[in-house]
Specification:
Blueprint (H helix, E strand, L loop, with lengths): L1 E5 L2 H11 L10 E5 L4 H10 L3 E5 L2 H8 L12 E4 L5 E6 L6 H12 L2 E2 L8 E11 L5 H14 L7 E7 L6 H9 L3 E5 L1 H4 L11 H7 L4 H14 L4 E8 L3 E11 L9 H5 L1
Parallel strand pairs: 1-2, 1-3, 3-4, 5-6, 7-8, 8-9
Antiparallel strand pairs: 4-5, 7-11, 10-11
GO molecular function, one term: hydrolase activity
InterPro entries: CbiG_hydrolase (IPR052553), CbiG_N (IPR021744), CobE/GbiG_C (IPR002750), CobE/GbiG_C_sf (IPR036518), GbiG_N_sf (IPR038029)
Keywords: Hydrolase
Length: 272
Amino acid sequence: MIRFVALTPAGERLARKLLSNVALNNWPDAVVDYKPKPFAEFVQTAFKNGDWLVFICATGIVMRTLAPVLQDKYQDPPVLVLDEEGKFVIPLLSGHEGGANEWGAQVAKSLGAQLVMTTAKPYLNPVYTLGMGCERHCPLEFIESLMLDALAQKGLTPSDIHSLNSIDIKADETNLIALADKYHWDFNTYSAQELTPMESLLSTKSDYIFNTVGVYGVAESAALLAVQMETGTEPELILNKIKNAKATCALARGFCSSSGEFTGRNANHLNG
């Protein structure tokens, strides 16, 4: 459950605007709570119940209210704070592990607002990369259906993706090329030597894949390396490898400055 908590009429209007975006963005069910009473008890109960919380008020109010019920970043639900004009979105709690950073980026995008990342450089925009591996001559439908499933799991669309990436032995894989062409993505491939530095960031390591191609995971490694090379920032997996009978797929994210450091294909999309 998402709760949009507003304390002013302007905040309530913004909350209801966000409520209309819930279904569009594949977020959980949501409600608007305008001036809930008693405020502290209401908010703390929602937090302990694991509700996703969006506060449209001052960050100080939020922190003082939630302080008694905070546990740790692995258990606390994601919390965002917005100004009542909807110009800034701040992932306040559970940024990485709880998903507030990613969710905040989606909220900012839906409002045309600025994402304010306090866990990294401020004023950053997300860049998403797709990594895939597959059997030789894998049919397009296996690759495409898996890709669409991966994006749906994270509330993304093909236009959010910067590039499709794999290992160099797949550079001539007909349907990986066809998939990239269909969605107007760059298709990049990397050698096992180039992918190896991503090993420490992998969610799982497959000895079989290592013995076959020289890296412990193609999809995750390729997605991570691609976003690191594009943004120059520390990459993170936002979707661990998923697979079907013939292909694997993973999603990674990095952040670029809104001041124009990102020069890739989707720069205008990500900044708009």
